[in-house]
Amino acid sequence: MNNQLVGLLSVLAFDLISGVSPVVTKFISFSVPSFLLVAIRFSFAAVFLFLFMLIFGKWKKSYLSITKKQLIGLLLLGTVGSGIASWLNVVAIRQIGAALTTILVNLEIPLGILFAVWFLGEKVTKRFLILAVCILFGVVLVTSSGNFNIAWSMSFWIGISTSLLAAILWGACTIIGKVLLGELSSMVVAFYRFAVASVFNSLIVFILYKENITNIISGVSMNDWLKLLYLGMGASAIALVLYYTALKRMEVKQFSLLVTLPIAISVILGVISGERFLIHQWIGAFIIISGIVVLVTENKKNKSLV
């Protein structure tokens, strides 16, 4: 099985797992603070990957093989990609709502492609750019509710700036991850990212809720713990290993378009769970899926879009 096929299968498996994640998250009680949810999720992911490496004898090798330069990159992935950027995303949602925030943070996709051209020397053709624009248009349609209810105030500009900054940071982290994967395994990169992120987010939780953190944690129901366990082990640990396995074997520009599929999957699962979607959101999901089918088909036929 060649690298391109392994990468393609990995990113499609990641898409399926990630598409389920928002639906699971939606059913977690709102009494669980966002930062605590993220901290627990990433902690479960880090522990799961650590135990896996320990059991299969990969831990010592992964620990000894890390250089100082790589460690700096891993720290950036954890603190910036899964810490600061996630926090900025929460701030944006609370200022301008989930719909507009989702559209803006998905600028991570074209930014990742742009960064790949600038810093990694990847090249794009006119056909690829047209396909990218179509898929991004589909993303905008899916994530748009058609009613943002925005007041042009200071909170609006705070939300806009924080969501755009989150998109920039996530796009940059894709490039950092790609560089690290040239020397480290997907599992090692995923583990260190989650380990750093769990510590970072736990510190934020302690700072924000230190007076009643015990009561908050004890108030988490068993059902919510099970959902968090799935989010940590499945939608985080396994999903990110698949994510990095694909990124290691594919060019960033192709990879960035393929990881838009979870958005369409979330629409379908949302309908199954009782949500209602507008016609333009269905059209957007169709555009995303169609664009990805074209991308996959062209690659399979070895007709370069790039």
From TrEMBL:
Gene Ontology CC: membrane
Locations listed in the record: Membrane
InterPro entries with a match to the protein in the record: AA-Vitamin_Transporters, EamA_dom, EmrE-like
Protein name as it appears in the record: EamA domain-containing protein
Pfam family of the protein (one): EamA
Signal peptide segment: none
Primary location class: membrane
Residue spans crossing the bilayer: 35-59, 71-90, 96-121, 128-150, 156-177, 189-209, 229-247, 254-273, 279-297
Domain EamA: 7-143, 158-296
Keywords: Membrane, Transmembrane, Transmembrane helix
UniProt cross-references to SUPFAM superfamilies, sorted A to Z: Multidrug resistance efflux transporter EmrE (SSF103481)
Similarity comment: family membership: Belongs to the EamA transporter family.
Membrane-topology annotation of the record: Multi-pass membrane protein
